[in-house]
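Write out this protein's structure.
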Amino acid sequence: MSELIPWGTREETRPSLFRTKFFREFDDLMSRFFGEEQFFTERWPGFHPAIDISETDDEIVVKGEIPGIDPKDMDISLTGRVLSIKGEKKEEKEEKQEGTYRKERRFGSFSRSFTVPSEIREDKIEAKFDNGVLTIRLPKKETAKKTSIKIEI
């Protein structure tokens, strides 16, 4: 059916891709009109930071790009095998110039949860936040580490 639609390809008719394209074009229009960057993606409440998860034999490493958030506005918890990262971004900007006054508030919150594939040593968990990058190191329990034995035939 979507092949019969003359004004777009199948990819453009899917809602998520359409929304992304719409937001990008709207951001471009607003930045040309107001001289600002990313009207939708920066001002719309709620955002989803990019999170990378990697695993070695000894630990699970979670890295997230979370710029513009103060570490005290983040909540990181491990409940059972579910790691939750929550945060809230608050920003207030005020400009006073001759004949104009402008005050903006930007805010948004996020919540991401992941199931950890191994049991973790809770007493050895480390989290650091440096230049907008959150790094969480979750060391595995000895019983969770993979062991390899050779089986003879």
